[in-house]
UniProtKB/TrEMBL annotation, chain B:
<dbReference type="GO" id="GO:0044281">
    <property type="term" value="P:small molecule metabolic process"/>
</dbReference>
<dbReference type="GO" id="GO:0016625">
    <property type="term" value="F:oxidoreductase activity, acting on the aldehyde or oxo group of donors, iron-sulfur protein as acceptor"/>
</dbReference>
<dbReference type="GO" id="GO:0030976">
    <property type="term" value="F:thiamine pyrophosphate binding"/>
</dbReference>
<dbReference type="InterPro" id="IPR032686">
    <property type="entry name" value="PFO_beta_C"/>
</dbReference>
<feature type="domain" description="Thiamine pyrophosphate enzyme TPP-binding">
    <location>
        <begin position="52"/>
        <end position="194"/>
    </location>
</feature>
<keyword id="KW-0460">Magnesium</keyword>
<dbReference type="InterPro" id="IPR051457">
    <property type="entry name" value="2-oxoacid:Fd_oxidoreductase"/>
</dbReference>
<dbReference type="GO" id="GO:0046872">
    <property type="term" value="F:metal ion binding"/>
</dbReference>
<keyword id="KW-0479">Metal-binding</keyword>
<dbReference type="InterPro" id="IPR011766">
    <property type="entry name" value="TPP_enzyme_TPP-bd"/>
</dbReference>
<dbReference type="GO" id="GO:0045333">
    <property type="term" value="P:cellular respiration"/>
</dbReference>
<dbReference type="Pfam" id="PF02775">
    <property type="entry name" value="TPP_enzyme_C"/>
</dbReference>
<keyword id="KW-0560">Oxidoreductase</keyword>
<protein>
    <submittedName>
        <fullName>2-oxoacid ferredoxin oxidoreductase</fullName>
    </submittedName>
</protein>
<keyword id="KW-0411">Iron-sulfur</keyword>
<dbReference type="InterPro" id="IPR011896">
    <property type="entry name" value="OFOB"/>
</dbReference>
<dbReference type="InterPro" id="IPR029061">
    <property type="entry name" value="THDP-binding"/>
</dbReference>
Length: 588, 281
């Protein structure tokens, strides 16, 4: 075999990787408007979302969008919510300023989200007893154009017309999505929409916030799945073996699309059991492999998570949560699999669980997952959820050269022992074909050579070796991000970051400050000390029992209040604000 | 006598007289005769008596979970196509717990050799029926005897058009050796189902039984003909042994990697390209 070298060789004694540059957290938008669009699945509502987010960004606004959809391919009633602001927005709101109904069902579906001030737009044929509707002639226009599927383009036009925005910008955004054949008719539909929208200018529409063209030009627009994918690529991922399951499929699709540009091997496995075993086979051979799944699939993987622990084979698992148990709500959101991630598998072994909360953190911690798995030779699970994976937001330019790629594999010598005892519990990892030694990996309890043993002394020493790795990993845990100061800590983890930030800014209560955890397991007790000093600790979680609160309690942190929600939705800023306000108004 | 591929000072956990010993010897001889470098050879196994084979041979090994050797093997081969990869285990391991992987690995066609020690019983867990146990076979669990139709790995592999399908009887050592060699020389997935007596838990399918109930496939058999291979696979009095079918197809690694055979550990991503792709968002 040819002499091959490992690029970026590293050892555990090298310093832990810190993430590139400390970033200023930007405050959420001061001024924003919201537009909710409702329609059936399969009618192009997602295309509409893409065109509009792109066009608003191009027009100099910060945009954020999130969707809510039924688990069916056609029909049903789905919505997309857009927020347009003068600074970053990273959370949905429940009540909406403008609502556009593409069919009658959408009206009943979104009824609760309308206020007295909401302007409702719908086709002339749509009526509702209780809702006042501003009619737009969608179907009439479409009849002339010859097809229902131009409705979305027409509606985007109406929105741009209403606000007097530049039609050329909308066209640009559209051109990125349609091919030659379709673009012509879509443009025509859009133009008619714009003209009609302009004619509505006397209605009391909310004012758009100020434009910040220069700022938004330098920003990027993407969904959480893509951001996670960029993070994994920055971490050197070159193999993904996965079985499709919503809402993790976004990452699988993204990685597959990137396999056209990189040596990145993508295999759809026969099941999740195979997925994670393949990941282990890949790492054993020197690949940087990962799998993507959701709770139900991860449940099947627990056997191989345990194997990763025993054989000390690294693994990266992207787990996008959705409500369970069992098949639960396939297309909805929840932070309900934290315990599953932390406790799955049998026997005692170390693992790291990360839960990024926004696009930038998806990139940072996607990268870090690979670095950590390789460094500690253990499974690393990155948690996302449907809400974070599917919502679209903006982030600043990322400098990928700042993510140092390191590979913790060494050429072996003839006396190489895969599980040799070392001071810190980590044995340098060899791979077959690189060097003179034989690499012997096993799921059975073993001696330093990797041979099966039932010696109680050896068992004891190996258990301690694996335990040492956990102690070492804890020392490297990233501390929670603390935003602001005060006497009442509002604590969250993962995807609730944006909503909590916005709520705290809106409440402007000097007692409240935010504590956001991304590194959720194992926790470093030193990082929690500050929570013993606060007067009140409130944990906000998107699950029914407060899984993370319980973990904090185990670390002797008093949890005074929990705000929990497990209805299939992520938190909404306006509703959460009210809840938190009511909770703290009585407090000293 | 010590073989260069022996691991020294390792305690063997097999029962005296077990057919596994001969399979181990056969494997060592074939690897040596084909001059396969142990430093570029990995044996991947699952769990069971048969799956302990890698512990007794001086190559790289990955001994994973019950039934899971095949997905590990396929991904390993993908990560470094220059390695010789062998997946090894028992009939319970490979056809029972790992049945789904068996089907899908054949469909992928990775260039690996798949050796199944078929003793028609679960050895390690002390004598329950395996998927290949014969009807009527009595065990502490199947107290009235096995009711289920035995799994026929050869006909199943043929139904999936596996690239190389064979069965041998370890009691017929010379014949087994020639077939195993062919399996290693075959490019793509190669199944070698090996009849192997479990002298402790299977008192029916003994050395003698296998000898009396198997017959080498005659030279006139056209191993490129899928239909006649299938016909042979369904015969059972006697049970044919030898190469049933062989055909060349592109492999899993080739399909995903083209002719790029570099080990993935030697590669890194082009950061400028990543930056550019990000910039397009
Ligand atoms: C998930 C799981 N289930 C069950 C077992 C217990 N188990 C160990 S070996 C084995 C059967 C092995 O039979 P076979 O593959 O025929 O190998 P043999 O021991 O006969 O060589 C079983 C059921 C296990 N280790 N893991
Ligand atoms: S139990 Fe059977 S298969 Fe296992 S070693 Fe003993 S004889 Fe061989």
């Amino acid at each position: 075999m040819n002499e091959t070298k490992v690029p970026f060789e590293a050892t555990i004694s090298d310093q832990a990787v810190s993430l590139p540059e400390k970033r200023e957290e930007e405050l959420p938008g001061r001024d924003s408007i919201s537009i909710l669009i409702g329609g059936a699945a399969g009618t192009g509502i997602m295309t509409l979302e893409k065109i509009l987010t792109g066009a608003f960004k191009r027009s100099g606004y910060f945009v954020f969008s999130t969707k809510e959809y039924m688990s069916r391919v056609r029909g049903g009633s789905n919505t997309t919510l857009l927020r347009i602001a003068d600074a970053p927005v990273n959370a949905p709101c429940w009540y909406t300023d403008i609502f556009i109904a593409l069919d009658t069902d959408a009206l009943s579906h979104a009824h609760e989200r309308l206020t007295d001030h909401t302007i409702v737009l719908a086709d002339e044929n749509i009526t509702h007893e209780e809702i006042e509707i501003t009619k737009i002639p969608v179907s009439r226009a479409l009849k002339e154009l010859g097809g229902r599927h131009y409705a979305n383009s027409y509606v985007t036009g109406v929105i741009f017309g209403i606000f007097g925005l530049d039609e050329a910008v909308l066209t640009e955004s559209m051109e990125a999505l349609f091919d030659e054949e379709e673009i012509h008719k879509n443009k025509a539909a859009m133009h008619q929409g714009v003209v009609y929208g302009q004619s509505l200018k006397d209605l009391p529409f909310p004012k758009l916030p100020g434009q910040l063209q220069q700022k938004t030009n330098s920003m990027h627009l993407m969904d959480g799945s893509s951001a996670s994918g960029f993070g994994f690529l920055a971490g050197g991922c070159n193999m993904i073996t996965a079985y499709p399951m919503s809402p993790s499929t976004g990452v699988l699709n993204f990685m597959a699309s990137m396999s056209e540009h990189f040596t990145l091997l993508v295999e759809q496995s026969e099941d999740e059991i195979a997925s994670l075993n393949m990941v282990l086979g890949g790492w054993f051979g020197g690949a940087r492999a990962m799998t993507s799944t959701s709770g139900g699939g991860f449940a099947l993987m627990s056997e191989a998570v345990s194997l990763s622990g025993m054989s000390e084979t690294p693994a990266v698992i992207y787990l996008a949560q959705r409500p369970g148990p069992a098949t639960g709500l396939p297309t909805r959101s929840e932070q309900g699999d934290l315990n599953l991630a932390i406790y799955s598998g049998h026997g005692y072994f170390g693992r790291i669980v990360l839960a990024p909360g926004d696009l930038q953190e998806c990139i940072d911690f996607g990268y870090l997952a690979f670095e950590l798995a390789d460094r500690y030779q253990m499974p690393v699970i990155t948690l996302s959820d449907q809400y974070l994976a599917d919502s679209i937001g903006m982030l600043k330019r990322v400098d990928f050269s700042a993510y140092v790629q390191r590979r913790y594999i060494l050429p072996t010598d003839a006396l190489y022992e895969r599980y040799k005892f070392t001071e810190n519990g980590i044995t340098p990892r060899g791979v077959p074909g690189l060097g003179e030694g034989l690499v012997v990996s096993t799921s059975d309890e073993h001696d330093e050579r990797g041979q099966i043993t039932e010696s109680s002394h050896m068992r004891d020493k190996m258990v301690k070796k694996r335990k040492k790795k956990i102690s070492l990993a804890i020392l490297e845990a990233h501390s929670p991000k603390v935003m602001g100061e005060g006497s009442i800590a509002v604590i969250g983890w993962g995807s609730t970051k944006g909503v909590i930030t916005e709520v705290l800014r809106e409440l402007a209560d000097p007692r409240l400050f935010q504590v956001h955890f991304v590194w959720v397991h194992p926790l470093d007790p030193r990082h929690l000390e500050m929570l013993k000093e606060t007067k009140t600790n409130i944990v906000i979680e998107n699950n029914v029992t407060g899984e993370f609160s319980d973990i904090l309690k185990k670390h002797d942190i008093d949890i005074h209040h929990r705000i929990l929600q497990a209805d299939g939705f992520a938190f909404f800023t306006d509703l959460l604000k009210e809840k938190l306000y009511n909770l703290v108004k009585e407090q000293k | 006598m010590k073989h260069p591929l022996d691991r020294t000072d390792i305690d063997n956990a097999w029962c005296p007289g077990c057919g596994n010993f001969a399979i181990l010897k056969l494997l060592k001889e074939v690897l040596t005769e084909l001059e396969l470098d142990p430093k570029n050879t990995v044996i991947v196994s699952g769990i069971g008596q048969a799956a302990k084979t890698p512990y007794y041979i001086g190559t790289h090994m990955f001994c994973g979970l019950h039934g899971r050797a095949l997905p590990v093997s396929a991904a390993l081969k993908l990560s470094n196509p220059a390695l010789t990869v062998i997946a090894e285990g028992g009939d319970g391991d490979m056809y029972g717990e790992g049945g789904n992987h068996f089907l899908h690995t054949i469909r992928r066609n990775p260039d690996i050799v798949h050796i199944v020690h078929n003793n028609m019983v679960y050895g390690l867990t002390k004598g329950q029926a395996s998927p290949t146990s014969q009807k009527g076979f009595k065990t502490p669990v199947q107290v009235k005897g096995v009711n289920n139709e035995p799994f026929n790995p050869v006909s199943v592999a043929l139904a999936l058009k596996a690239g190389f399908v064979s069965r041998v009887n370890i009691g017929n050592y010379t014949h087994a050796k020639s077939v195993l060699k062919e399996a290693f020389l075959h490019k793509g997935y190669a199944l070698v189902d090996v009849f192997q007596p479990c002298v402790v838990f299977n008192k029916v399918n003994t050395y003698k039984w296998f000898k009396e109930n198997t017959a080498e496939i005659e030279d006139s058999h056209d191993s490129s003909n899928l239909l006649s291979a299938m016909q042979k696979a369904l015969e059972n009095a006697p049970v044919p042994i030898g190469i049933f079918y062989q055909t060349m197809q592109s492999t899993f690694e080739e399909n995903l990697r083209g002719d790029d055979t570099r080990a993935l550990y030697s590669l890194s991503h082009d950061i400028d390209k990543l930056q550019l792709l990000f910039g397009a968002y």
